[in-house]
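#structure-requests
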Amino acid sequence: MLSIVSPTPSERMWQKDTRKANHAFTLGHLKKAEQGYEASLTIATTLFDTFKVSGQHLSSPVILTISYLNCVDFFKSQGDLKKSLSFLKKACTALIQASSLPTLPLEARLACVEQLPCIVSLLTDYADALFELHHDRDDLITHARATALRVYQIAGYMPPTSPTSEPVKSYNS
């Protein structure tokens, strides 16, 4: 049976700030939207820091990802691709670091890893020239994939790692 967990007061505050920022952005109140997204990210980061210690509130990686992606989208829409990319890199790094914490319960590590595909996908959208070093993007993506693979191995369900990996056995055979 699926149990529904009520949001914590901090999660409700995050939702409220995020909605206000989205509304301000829709109305073209860019300064107010920016402040709202930054306030939401501050709350999300605090929730995520608590999550990294407790392993509880599995929604924290999702909340953190949404907050970072709101900042990514906001600054991208303003034409500030460097700042947009910096938020994307911070999101990826935070999720990789939390996924790598051996003290974090496996379920919590998986919750972090599940957020990585959208971040990695977005990293590929940015021009090479925006990265300080030519290999920065590749290194970050490789680290994200290696971390996810390691967590999936620990969980006991590792996807094929390369085109030459043994194919998945068919249950219909």
